[in-house]
Amino acid sequence: MQHSQYGKQFEACSLEFLPPSTQEGMEKFLASGLLRGVGPSTAKKLMAAFGERVFQVMEHSPQDLQSIPGIGPAKGEKIAQSYKEHQHVQRLMVFLQSYGIGLALGLKLYRTYGEEAIRILQHQPYRLATDVSGIGFRTADKIAKTLGIPHDSPERIRAGIAYLLQQALDDGHVCMPFDSLFAKVRTELQVPHLHADEAFSLMQQIKELAVERDATGRLSVYLRPYLAMEEYVAQWFFDKIQGPGQGFAGAECIQHDQSVESLLSSEQMQAVTEAFSTPVLILTGGPGTGKTTTIRAILQVALQLGWQTVLAAPTGRAAKRLTETTGAPAKTIHRLLEYGQVEGAGGQFARHANHPLDGDLFIIDEVSMLDLQMFYYLLRALPPHGRLLLVGDQNQLPSVGPGQILKDLLDSKTVPSVTLTTVFRQAQASLIVENAYRVLHGQMIRKGGREDNCFFLPVHDLDQMEQLLLELVRTRLPAFLQLDDPYDSYEHIQVLAPMRKGRFGVERFNHLLQEAINPFAHGKREIRAQGITFRIGDKVLQTKNEYEKDVFNGDIGRIVDVDAEDGRMTVLFPDQRTVEYEQHEFDMLQHAYAMTIHKSQGSEYPIVILPMVMEHAILLQRQMFYTALTRARRLAVIVGQEAAVKRAIATSKIAHRYTNLAERLRREC
Ligand SMILES: Nc1ncnc2c1ncn2[C@@H]1O[C@H](COP(=O)(O)OP(=O)(O)OP(=O)(O)O)[C@@H](O)[C@H]1O
């Protein structure tokens, strides 16, 4: 077209990436790390051997790559495969660029749909929202809009409802009341004219959803598996509680065991007795109330009775701690249920109703962290005669996943429980424990002094605060621990922050602390991915359950090897296992010098540093503060604005979670 002012203009009707055509450009491309198995030195060798033909060789005669020393059949195949993938992904990226989808998500799309990706995007854009983690309904919606799918099409609203429910699950809800969900459909999906009965009928058409009406006529909407799990859990308790009594097994044994009896308070004795007389028992109590001591006594009695006991906890760190404190082996629930050990069906639990666990008494610790799904899998795997003892602190933050199992079981008042209330002398002398209870009761913490295991360092100036925090990690606390090298302190010191973002958030701290503790050095290999530099020696956190690698959300390790050329790193975990990660798996790792309080649940650290600033206002909350404080074993250091500490203590509201478990238990038991 001819523009009046600027002359001839073009309109682009298609866009294609062309591979670089000069030798220099080709080598640069090859050396960039985009292709797996090729780094700068292999790039040089490839160019020297094939010159401008290098791309043709990769595409049409990959076997020729093997003529280069160091490239065997496997590596040659990997390079050729990676080149092919790269070409597909590039075509896909051209298509995706107008939707604001970057390379990482583009790669995920490619991994999910392969060469079908563009076709699916064009014809069933809403599939993306459910199939590809990281691409939500919003992005799928943007694509659908440009394809001309109407705003109020049933297809769109159905995908939107599933998305809203998924969001609710991510926020910890098991279901949504129909009215709240309907309101969200109208506002968040922007279909204000939709009627309730239309929405209701759309929900019933979605096979993934279940709509349930309770006795009072209230409607709840579930993603179907969650309703089934909630029903299963309620039925399990009904069968246990209403089922034939299993008798009182160990009365004489307990009463005649002086070593047990003389050690325990009457509350603890009651817990021990009930653990052997009821098929299921909840044992709760705050820090220092003797939960672990009670578990030890129960184990001792069980041993005398010849009962087989099985101990487990929701996370690896919690299981490790349970082993340390009781002296009895404990596993994660995943390991206990033998995740992924089913022939030909990776990702399944090998233990379930048809192949239950062996054992007489199952003791599960840190139950506050159990979500509905995990609890369901656990109950399903217990043998019919198995007794269950659930131990936890109801004031800890609830599980990351949906549900609030411990709270619901207690609220239902249908499950036998013992609450330990006495804080024992040794624990009373601890300011960590005292301050934890102060927080719980809404009282200001005591600042603490030299002799105490908890102190609060108030600061007014945030620049000064940053310096102080770095100084604590770099010099003051390593000196306290009598460590020569602050690098070693990383195992002992854990910074916990309420939020990821912001000046005093986890991400920035991780950056600062990496520079302070494990800075760049010549010869120390590193690799950059998703804006993070991973360096040999870094402390890293696994952020999701990865059964195939046998590593789980919350596991902490240390990077022991980095291969930038091949896009790999190796992490050593505390049980001396090394795990390899490829470039596309790096997103499941983060630095762990600092982590969120949520992620720290169920773990303990010798020293905890807790930055508290008003910037975190929305998360300054009693339960959060309490959870963070009780993670410290030897020392808790709170650094920050007094107003922020006061605000956290004053804010007791606990986010409500939609679940019908308590109600269901009341109805059924
Ligand atoms: N009956 C008791 N008499 C005297 N001391 C006790 C008694 N029970 C527990 N203790 C002591 O109280 C302290 C805390 O006990 P324990 O570790 O069992 O509590 P806990 O509830 O598991 O604590 P936390 O949740 O903080 O780990 C320990 O030093 C323990 O020896």
UniProtKB/TrEMBL annotation:
Residues 28-49, 63-82, 127-146 form the Helix-hairpin-helix DNA-binding motif class domain. Pfam families: AAA_19 (PF13245), HHH_5 (PF14520), HHH_RecD2 (PF14490), SH3_13 (PF18335), UvrD_C_2 (PF13538). Gene3D superfamilies: 1.10.10.2220, 2.30.30.940, 5' to 3' exonuclease, C-terminal subdomain (1.10.150.20), P-loop containing nucleotide triphosphate hydrolases (3.40.50.300). CDD domains: DEXSc_RecD-like, SF1_C_RecD. It catalyses: ATP + H2O = ADP + phosphate + H(+). Its EC number is 5.6.2.3. Residues 277-575 form the AAA+ ATPase domain. Keywords: ATP-binding, DNA-binding, Helicase, Hydrolase, Isomerase, Nucleotide-binding. ATP binds at G288, T289, G290, K291, T292. Belongs to the RecD family. RecD2 subfamily. DNA-dependent ATPase and ATP-dependent 5'-3' DNA helicase. Has no activity on blunt DNA or DNA with 3'-overhangs, requires at least 10 bases of 5'-ssDNA for helicase activity. This is ATP-dependent RecD2 DNA helicase. The gene is recD2.
